[in-house]
Amino acid sequence: MRYIRTAAFILSGLLALQCTDDPPVIPPNDPPVYAQSIFLSAADSGLTEISLTLSISDTLPPRGFSLYRNNAQILTGSLFGRETVLVDTAVQFNTSYVYSVFRTDHSSKKDSSKSVMISTLDTTSHNYIFSFDTLGDGASSILYDVAIINDTLAYAVGEIFLKDSTGKIDPFLYNFAQWNGREWKVGRITVSYRGNEIIERIYSIFAFSPSDIWLSNGVPIHGDGKKWNQYHLFDMGVLSSNDGIIQNIWGRSTGKMFFVGRAGTIVTYNGNGWQKIESGTTVTINDVWGDRTGTNVIAAATNIYETGERKLLRINGAVTEQINWTPQQRLHSIWFTTMKRLYTSGGGVYMFNKGVWNNIPLPSQFTKRIRGTHENNIWTVGDFGICARFNGSSWKVFPEAALPDGQYDGLAVTPNMMMAVGQVGNRAIIVTAKKLERNTL
Fold first, then answer.
1. Is the separation of the CB atoms in 161 and 170 below 8 Å?
2. Domains and CATH numbers, the chain
3. Is the confidence at residue 334, as pLDDT, over 50?
């Protein structure tokens, strides 16, 4: 069990410290409640951090507060707005804590919140079993992306070529594969374009449910698994001939979607209309990801060659803000749950924490995707079948997933499963890793 011997609370620009290393004591009851106007709720929980949202419902003084963890005061301060986030870093993993906050006037308690119990995450098992499936009869079949809906349903997209009845490669590709928990079956997604039904390669997939799926064949496609609507942004005038095709997708909901691609292209969809966002770059934006609220959305842009721009861009409304990318390695993917910790892959895997980018010591293969469910379950995959995972305590490389003549391009992760897709030789490949047991490092 690891102990953190320091305490730090971050309060919207105001930093206040009061800490104790005494063993936690769970209070038997909530503090006395007056006419409640101060509120505390869980914002996020990690391995060694807990985030709490503090709010006061009126604008009247006093605006002071005292925060308690396990019946011991750990922070005092003043709230100038209606709401802020407090971050407790003096916690240990796999432990439950009870928090409450008092509204104060100097040293007098005027009001209190209800108590909130929050548990930190535990490290997770690296014990997984791997299985492999290949699709296609050659002609450079490849899968670019994958989405897991549940334990018995997943979708993969790309371009798959099969032989026809004469034994020759069918020139009409398959662009979609569905997993039923046992096997993969290929199919074709067709869309209507200028009065014609067309079948094209599909670069990416982002699915909220079996009936709410976003795809991109260069422009966004939305469907319910049976019917598909293509948004040809070039014909619609949203994008011009100077813009690039859409290749990657992230969204908080179908009413809050983000699309990125070549030539620095960024487009958003709010459920009613489309908006192009100027990125300030013309290099390919390889990936986009956002936090659980959709407030913070970050895109990773890199020239495909060894030289050129490498940028992390935070999408802020109708503009982008550049995030300091000090490693200056090629960026191919981004994943995070909060802005406190960012994870990138590409020319190395990096973690941003407390203002510093830290390199993760993994093999030197180029990593094309990084995804996770929380900071105790993060995966990265890439060239030559590199496949590695962070369990909250350590990184593990899985040699059983290696592909001497292949690579993984797409990745999806759930708490108990990982799927990566790509190409081996001239066939498409899917590797599935399923967790065997818990709490074994």
1. yes
2. 9-119 (2.60.40.10), 128-435 (2.130.10.10)
3. yes
